[in-house]
Amino acid sequence: VQLQASGGGLVQPGGSLRLSCAASGSILSTNAMGWYRQAPGKQREWVAGMPSGGTTNYADSVKGRFTIYRDNAKNTVYLQMNSLRPEDTAVYYCNTLTPRGVMYWGQGTQVTVSS
User: Fold this and answer.
1) DSSP per position, 10-58
2) What is the pLDDT of residue 29?
3) Coil, strand or helix at 109
4) What does the CA dihedral 73, 54, 31, 101 come to, rounded to 10 degrees?
5) Which of 93, 113, 91 is nearest to 16 (CA)?
6) How far apart are CA 93 and CA 107, in angstroms?
């Protein structure tokens, strides 16, 4: 499984970005998908998750501002980020967890929120 994350960039506070995570195969119907982020000097933290057949979940820090969703036909998971704050600045990673418990990571995309 290969994951390709994209969509990061520089945005002003209050702005929006949409991150994409393209998977190499048709895994979205079977695998859980998630987004994590890592800010400079901090540990990687979970941001949002989407089980293969369940409800989405969000970290409290992004709840109400971020939305995770997928397009099975495109084998792509998205993270729509609205009302961005400087503290959202981080490298964002997507990952997937197979039904057998194997986890794969994408390469990360930088999001910088600054005026």
Assistant:
1) EE-TT--EEEEEEESSS-TTTSEEEEEEE-TTS--EEEEEE-TTS--EE
2) 78
3) strand
4) 180
5) 113
6) 7
Rg of the chain (C-alpha set): 13
Query: Which residue in this structure is represented by tokens 């964002």?
Result: 92
Provide the token pair at 113: 């929120």
CA 4 centroid distance within chain = 11
Residue with tokens 């397009």: 71
Structure confidence at residue 54 (pLDDT)? 67
Q: Which amino acid would we find at residue 63?
A: K
Query: Contact 47/79 with Cβ under 8 angstroms?
Result: yes
Length of the chain: 115
pLDDT at residue 28 in the model: 78
* Mean pLDDT value across the chain: 94
Residue-wise pLDDT for 49-104, tens only, equals 998 876 899 999 999 999 999 988 899 999 999 999 999 999 999 999 988 999 99
Question: How far apart are the C-alpha atoms of 87 and 53, rounded to whole Å?
Answer: 31
Cα torsion for 14, 17, 18, 20, to the nearest 10°? -140
